[in-house]
Design brief:
Length: 338
């Protein structure tokens, strides 16, 4: 039978795969030690208990993004002196690199070499690094003129097919600036507000290659919507509404996964309609909260999802905004396993 959108309350709660389904509070020591299913149809996933973390111990304050290189290594930014933590697919930490307080990050390949581009909020800059953490470029630089609204509050960035670079100041002016590949300013658009052509916390941003020509997709957090702009910074329109503080974006095929700080992870189709909901927390008192202890979070439920990325197999890696540091791997469930 064809799976449909998650409309009923019963469908918002993960289906337990463990032999010990939780009813009410989980027994001490059992929290996050079971795998549960979440989502629906071809967007069904199950969590990997304590992936990347020792039981009941976090990785240090998380308030950033996730990226994956072509060898399958996973990079999680943290707000700690350890900077960006590097993991293998099994959840073993295999390294660390770069500064702390990176809000968002993505990886791009140039001439056969991969680089991390990081929105360094604390440093008021976008910085490009090798995968070992060597800094090789940043904006602003000596070729960058003053920009309207200043550099406070860098939240997100991405690179268009022609090499132009877009940087969002969602924690500051809410302007989005376009630069050439050397960091020379080209254009400023958006700005704070609730109306057409405005943003109220331009928190996440990515080039949307689902369209031809590609577009800019912005997670307009406090307006609860996604918005589309063309590559010249001209407003196209609202791509999705009714979201609960959207923060980050990850694409797979015609779908986009969106972290909601006050909800779960929603998967939307190309029309902006919800086709699956992952990790919805049934406890409203934990949604969007930074201080939820790891032994209080239920299996397969997010508390304040902030950043995410797909790997080539369609698995999702998510980090919560959490002062203890909470990261999650969701493994895609094949249709034959459902």
């Amino acid at each position: 039978m064809k799976q449909t959108m998650l409309l009923g309350a019963a469908l918002l709660l993960p289906l337990t795969l463990s032999a010990h389904p939780h009813k009410g509070s989980a027994p001490q020591g059992e929290v996050l030690t079971v795998a549960v299913a979440t989502g629906s149809g071809k967007h069904t996933y199950k969590n990997v208990p304590w992936w990347g973390m020792a039981e009941s111990r976090g990785v240090g304050s998380t308030n950033g993004g996730v990226a994956i290189d072509k060898t399958g290594k996973i990079y999680f930014s943290t707000d700690t002196v350890k900077g960006i933590l590097i993991y293998d697919e099994k959840g073993k930490q295999i390294g660390q690199m770069g500064p702390g307080n990176i809000h968002d990050l993505f990886i791009r390949e140039e001439a056969g070499q991969e680089y991390i581009w990081a929105s360094h909020t604390a440093g008021k800059r976008l910085v490009k690094m090798t995968l070992k953490g060597k800094e090789v470029f940043q904006i602003p630089n000596e070729k960058t003129a003053e920009v309207k609204g200043g550099w406070g509050g860098v939240t997100a960035a991405d690179i268009a097919p022609d090499g132009s670079i877009f940087v969002a100041l969602g924690y500051g002016s809410n302007f989005i600036h376009k630069f050439d590949g050397e960091g020379k300013w080209i254009k400023t658009f958006a700005g704070r507000g609730k109306g057409v052509g405005q943003c109220n916390t331009a928190h996440g941003m990515a080039v949307d290659h689902r369209f031809d020509p590609p577009r800019i997709l912005v997670a307009d957090r406090e307006n609860g919507r996604l918005t589309h702009w063309d590559l010249n910074g001209e407003w196209i329109g609202v791509a999705a509404t009714g979201l609960r503080r959207p923060t980050d974006l990850a694409f797979r095929g015609d779908a986009v996964a969106v972290t909601e700080l006050a909800g779960g992870v929603k998967i939307l189709d190309k029309k902006g309609e919800v086709i699956a909901l992952l990790g919805e927390n049934p406890n409203p008192g934990q949604r969007g909260k930074n201080g939820v202890a790891l032994n209080q979070a239920q299996p397969g439920h997010f508390t304040a999802p902030h950043g995410l990325a797909y790997d080539p197999s369609g698995n999702l890696y998510v980090q919560d905004w959490n002062r203890f540091g909470r990261i999650t791997k969701l493994v895609k469930v094949n249709t034959s396993e459902q």
